[in-house]
Amino acid sequence: MDAKSTPRIALMISGLPRQWRRCLPTQLALFQNYAFDVFFHFWDVVDEAEKEEIVNLLQPRAHQFETPRDFSAADSDPLLQCDAINIPSRMFSQYYSWRNVARLVEPYLNDYTHALRSRSDLNFVYGIEHIIPQLKPGDILLNWWNEKLVLSDVFALGGMQPIYHFHTLYDHLHEYASQILFNPEALLSLHLHRNLDIHIYTEGFQYCYVRRAHMDKYTDEQALRENPGRNKWLDPEIFTAHKNHFSHTHGEPGVKYVNDFRLTQVATLVKELAEKSKNGLSKE
User: Fold this and answer.
1) Which of 115, 159, 227, 252 shows its CA 20 to 30 Å from the CA of 245?
2) Is the same domain home to 204 and 245?
């Protein structure tokens, strides 16, 4: 039998090692009937004992803990058409980590038929293994963001080449920035649509959620109901980072803007949850 006829998956994880003790076991449990290997690039923000725990859990084929890089120059880059709220340096950091986990996979690309793009704080509630046989080599599956306008970067499942391409966004940032708003979802949408060999499939069903710090006592059902773009504003680290950035760039008006933006997002989140409860999706 041709090795390519039997799916083999590369689980590609990147970013900061957040919420990993709760979330990474749900990712390791995804593939019960297919062989898979783990690759990860994490920013080195934990001590040696915790790094050893992560490696022991994931048993990666290749991995890297890298000292965080300073991408602050991006925050004043005149070539970037920044949107109203995202911080360029945080985006550069994320995309750099994507690119580096892809580099770890590069020597082994031909060993895999499929790949999953993930992050350490992604908690899977539902299985995705049943989707694998439906995905052709050029297919990629992800979710819509913002009412089917742009694509979400939370997770992606697909053929090895499309997922590898997904991770190379960092290489094209300035090229894309000259064409569109420097916004995460807009950049990813352009990046994927420009590759005509990729067939994009989208789905509204939520297989997983980003586990935030405020979710410690949540059930999975509660967590799935919260929009991950809005509930991040309940995260003190994210809120503080944005206040500091906009204070630096716009002074007190910038701080007020972030405070007001957060209040609007949280109010919208509460409204969305009330609507879901009214439609029979209550948390009880």
Assistant:
1) 227
2) no
Domain identity same for 165 and 274: no
Same domain as 124, residue 37: yes
Q: Are residues 143 and 273 in the same domain?
A: no
CATH number of domain containing 60:
3.90.550.10
Q: Last residue of some domain: 178, 210, 242?
A: 210
Structure tokens at 263: 């209040």
- pLDDT value, residue 204: 81
Side-chain half-sphere CA neighbours of 138 within 13 A = 6
DSSP strands (E only) in 81-211 = 114-119, 122-124, 139-142, 144-145, 150-151, 156-159, 199-202, 208-210
Strands, E assignment, 23-149: 35-43, 62-66, 114-119, 122-124, 139-142, 144-145
Per-residue pLDDT reduced to its tens digit, 29-51: 999 999 999 999 999 999 999 99
> Is 124 within 8 Å of 208 (Cβ atoms)?
yes
Average per-residue pLDDT in the chain?
93
pLDDT 10s digits, 154-180: 999 999 999 999 999 999 999 999 999
CA separation for the pair 43, 227 (Å, rounded): 25
Domain coverage including residue 195: 3-210
pLDDT tens for 181-222 read: 999 999 999 999 999 899 999 988 889 999 999 999 999 999
CA neighbor of 120 nearest in space, from 192, 210, 251, 236: 210
Q: Does 133 share its domain with 251?
A: no
Whole-model pTM above 0.85? yes
Q: Which of 195, 210, 225 is the last residue of a domain?
A: 210
